[in-house]
Structure formats: structure tokens, C-alpha cells
């Protein structure tokens, strides 16, 4: 069922597994690997060494177990993947979105349109990211997290979804990623704990440790973070 | 002395240098590079673009100097290396261990069985990690560090081994990595200073800066970290 | 105008685009990609999977727009690039400098001689780094930043250049990266805000959040950072 447009430019060194769709105007650079189920929409550009559609796998050391069936991994029109980006199976990336060098997005995520997921960012499984949202270099976005539209998350921000920090046997059953509403700004090196909700248009200061919900339109700072003023 | 089992699956694009051992049931994906002395045990899977057995090298800008002889770089049975993992020469990884995308482990480390070293984690030289231990995304594990069994180290945790921060001419001679005992949990974005010992079953809160030893079974939090209660 | 010395060692799998200069004694490992305008000086070694001279590109989601013309991307004599390093066009790296695995340096940067830019470090555009300076693993160096000579920046340090955190429409016009003078030491996990100047020979403690200028020769610590003593 795969189909590679004659109007796409595919490097001779790219490895294209079965059941891959590449639409017209797409450019695939050297040493890219496309696993089954990968769909690349019109005009997208995939730079060297990217890997798309990888199955999650486990040697028995993870809390989760995984299907061995590939889902659909979709890259939207005109989006650009920089060198070394790794996208797992079942994840979709919208149109006009930029993924930075060596970023990694796990399975079953939804990334919107006109986003930037910058260099060396890691995004965990089943997370949803809205449109026009930017996540800067070396940040970590946890699993089961929801991030709205027009959100800005600065460099080296940490987010987590497991209050037991691996101590609970059944932690995988009640993980709670943070929720970040539209228009929120999170400063560099901030740390957002499991289950926290950050209200619309709130600002989190650089280095803040956010242990509880942040009301919409408020600025929080400090360790632990406290409301200091309106935006 | 190298030997590649006929019952292994090795991509045509993999670069296998001399003196490499690949046992039966191993899968080597595209564009993997295996330097001399690499040994991959039964059933292990090495995903695309991994590099194993690299020599450490210096152009004269490092405090250390390096041998130009390859040691043994061993990946245990059924372990899985995700795309872009880089393992230096003389490091061994146990069985049923998972290494995440683009992680990098320097020379002469020992990583145990049933571990997870997650995506974009960096581990420095001559560090020992026990069994069933998990180190999450974008964390840094320093050199000469000892980490026990069933330890959980969360995302973006920093560890260091040089109190002089490069200011002492002979710093390389008295580096002291932290010691993390069995069953310890370290929260996201925590920062563990050189030489600190974290006692068995202790918990370090998210964002804590740990400047002194933590007694076994205690919870510490804050900047600098203070004991706040028993686990 | 490209020229590849007969006294260089270039892997058969390396992809060399047009207008690339490789001088004598250079070693290019497997699966390296060299884009137009790349110049590699005598005796430099480029390990597997590195990508040099990449153009910055945008699908319309970035504040900046980019030229589609390649500048000169220069790697100095005897420098070493570890696996997966990505260097954008118009950046120059001095001699005897070491770049770690999977680091990424954006366009129009100047990195000096005898430096270490360690593993998984990200450096943003148009930043200048002096000689004998070390930036450790998983740190982020922002754009438009100036870093002096003999500076030590520890692991997971965050730096930023945009006080509006993307909120200002014309933020790109008045970005101000920090200035770090000669002989400064910055501890692990520290966080340096936009426009801050850190004076010569100052020390920033681990985990400090630096919100204002630091006088020369002083030690600062805490959140926010305060002067606690002379060096």
C-alpha cells in the first residue's frame, strides 16, 4: 500500500521499508530510515539521519509492554525534520512544524501545526501538543501530557507524570502528566510536577519548581513556585 | 578473532570493523558502526545509527589522555539499543537492558541487567550502575560515580564529580563522583554535588540541590536540600 | 572550488556535497555528510554520522527567516568531532577543539581553540566562545551570547536571551544573550537569564538562578543568586 511520488526527491542512501507513503515535493536526505506506516505529506523535508516510524520495544526492563504492529506515523505538509530526529510509530506531526536536531518523540503523540520542537528535546508517549507551540532545546516533555496552543516552553524545562517516581508497582496505571493551557509561558529550567494544571496565559519563572496548580493569568516564581503577581 | 554468527541478522549497510563478535539471534539495523572489540550477545538488537566501541580521543583540550587500544565493549543478551546510542570502548552493558535514542556512555563503565538508560542521557567514564536501575531522559551521570540496584533517577538530573570545577590543575587526580545506594529515588531536575553519598532507600525531591550526604530512608528537598521526613 | 587532499582519509560512505575542502591528514569516518562550503583543516578528525554545513531552515514557524546560501563552515587543525555532531553553515571551530557526541551548533558561531563543547550540548546562532573554554554535557548556550577564554560551564546549565519568552512580536530584534567574561566558572544546573554579565573570574554555584550582573571575582549562589563571598 506504500506509494512514493515521482515528484519527490529521495536520496539513494535512504532506507525505505514497506508501506511508506511519500507525497510530491518531499525531500528525503541521506541515511534517513523510514519504517512501515510512515506517511510524509507534500513538500515536507526530512534531513539526514532521521528515523521515522520506529516501534517502541522493551527487553523486559520497562513497566509498559508494546504492540509489535506499526501504526501510522504522519508528517504534515511543509514540515521540516532536522538531522537525527527520531519519531516513533503512531505519532502525527502537523503542517509547517519544525523538529530540531536529535529530538525524539515517542509513540502516539499529536504535535500540531506551526510548532517548533527544538534540538535534543524528548517527548514521551501519548502526549498532545497544540498549534503554534514552541518547546526549546534540551527540554523534556513527559507522557500523557496535554499542551495547548501558543505555548512557549523554554530550554531545559523538566516535566514528569509519576508521583511515585517508579516506586509504585502499578504506577503505569495512574500516571498523570501536567496540563498546560493556551498561551502559557514556562521559563528556562523550570520543573513542572505530575498532574499540575497551568492556567491560560500564566507565566512560570525561570528555575521555578511548580508543585501545585497555577491560576490563569498569574505569574509564579521560586522553589516551590508561588504566585507573585498578575501577568 | 571476530566472529559473526550465521544466525544473526545484520543490515548490509552496517559497518563492522575487525575483531567484532555477533552472536546468534542478534539484529543489527541500518548504518550501525561497530568498532574493534565489540561483542554483542545472543538476541540483542541494535537499532539504526548506533555506534559501539568508539575510542575516547582528545585533540589536547582535555585533562585526561587516552589509550589508542580498543578494549572489550560488550552488550548483554536480549538488550536493546535505540537509534543513535553511542557506547565507548571498554564499557559493558548487562542483559535485558534498554538504552534510549542518542544516549552516550563513555569508556570503562559497567551498566547492569534490566536497566533503562533513557533517551539523550550522558554517562561519563568509569561509572558503575547496578541492576534494575532507571535513568530517565536528558539526565547526566558523571564519571567515577557508583549507582546501586533498583535506583530511579528522573529526567534532567545533574551529577558532578569535580568540586574545583576545572579550576585545579590536578583535578583529574582527585575526582569524586557521588555514591547512590540501592533503592534510592531522585526527582526531576535534582542536582547532586561531588562526593555526596545518598543512603539506601532515600528520596531526593524534584529540583533539590544535594550538597551533603543524605541518610538512608530520609526524604530531602530544597535548595540546598534538607531532611524533611522519613520515607 | 572544492578540493579534497589525496593525503586525507575519507570513508567511502561519506557524502561530500560540492565546494568542500578537506586538507591533508584529515580523517572522515562513515556516514558523515558535508554540505557546501565546509572546510576541514589539516589533521582534523570527523567521526561517524556528523553533519557539517547545514543550512538553517524554517517552515514558517520560526521568528527568524534564513538565507538559502551556504557560508563557510570551518573546522580548525587537529580538532575532533565526535559521532553525530551537527554544525550549521557559517560557523567556525578553532584548532585542537573537541566537540562531543550529538552536540549541535547553529549558524554563524565562533568557537575558539582548545575548547571542549561536550556531548549533547546545544549552541544557538551567532554566539562567540573564546579559547580554552569548556561547556559540559547537556548544557544549552543561547544565541547572541559571548563567552570568554578559560571559562568552565558545567552540565545542564541553561542560558537564555529573550526576556519576553516569545511573547513580544518583535522579540527577534532585541535579543540579549548573557556575557560571560574570562575565567568564569558556572556550576551544574545553573540558570543564567538574558542580558546578564558575569564578571571575570566569578563563580556561579550549582543550581543558582542568576537574574542580575555578577561582579568580577565574586561567588554567587542561590535562587535568585546572591553574592556570598570573594573567590
Explain what the structure shows:
- 3 copies of one chain form a homotrimer.
- Chain A contains no helices and 32 strands.
- In chain A, strand 31 and strand 32 form a beta hairpin.
- Chain A is globular.
- The mean pLDDT of chain A is 95.
- The N and C termini of chain A lie far apart (52 Å).
- Chains in contact: A-B, A-C, B-C.
- At the A-C interface, loops of A face strand 24 of C.
DSSP, total strands of chain A: 32
In percent terms, what proportion of residues of chain A is strand?
A: 25-35%
What's the helix count of chain A? 0
Biggest interface, residues from each chain: A-B, 35 and 45 residues
* Radius of gyration of chain A, taken over Cα atoms and rounded to an integer in Å: 18 Å
The CATH H-level homologous superfamily of the domain at 1-126 in chain A: Hexapeptide repeat proteins
CATH class of the domain at 1-126 in chain A: Mainly Beta
- What is the molecular shape of chain A? globular
Strand order of the largest sheet of chain A: 2-5-8-11-14-17-20-23-26-29-31-32
Class based on secondary structure composition and strand pairing of chain A: mainly beta
Which percent bin holds the helix content of chain A? under 10%
Amino acid at each position: 500500500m506504500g506509494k512514493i511520488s515521482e515528484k519527490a526527491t529521495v536520496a539513494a542512501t535512504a532506507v525505505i521499508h514497506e508501506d511508506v507513503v511519500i507525497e510530491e515535493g518531499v525531500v528525503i536526505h541521506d541515511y534517513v530510515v523510514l519504517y512501515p506506516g510512515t506517511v510524509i505529506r507534500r513538500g515536507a523535508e526530512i534531513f539526514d539521519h532521521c528515523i521515522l516510524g520506529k516501534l517502541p520495544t522493551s527487553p523486559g526492563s520497562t513497566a509498559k509492554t508494546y504492540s509489535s504492529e506499526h501504526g501510522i506515523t504522519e508528517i504534515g505538509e511543509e514540515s521540516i525534520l532536522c538531522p537525527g530526529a527520531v519519531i516513533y510509530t503512531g505519532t502525527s506531526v502537523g503542517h509547517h512544524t519544525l523538529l530540531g536536531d536529535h529530538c525524539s518523540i515517542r509513540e502516539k503523540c499529536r504535535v500540531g501545526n506551526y510548532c517548533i520542537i527544538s534540538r535534543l528535546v524528548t517527548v514521551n508517549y501519548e502526549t498532545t501538543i497544540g498549534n503554534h507551540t514552541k518547546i526549546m532545546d534540551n527540554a523534556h516533555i513527559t507522557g500523557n501530557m496535554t499542551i495547548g496552543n501558543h505555548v512557549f516552553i523554554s530550554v531545559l524545562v523538566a516535566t514528569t507524570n509519576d508521583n511515585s517516581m517508579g516506586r509504585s508497582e502499578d504506577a503505569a496505571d495512574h500516571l498523570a502528566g501536567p496540563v498546560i493551557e493556551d498561551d502559557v509561558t514556562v521559563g528556562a529550567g523550570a520543573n513542572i510536577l505530575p498532574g499540575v494544571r497551568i492556567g491560560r496565559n500564566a507565566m512560570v519563572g525561570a528555575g521555578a519548581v511548580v508543585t501545585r496548580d497555577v491560576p490563569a493569568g498569574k505569574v509564579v516564581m521560586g522553589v516551590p513556585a508561588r504566585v507573585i503577581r498578575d501577568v
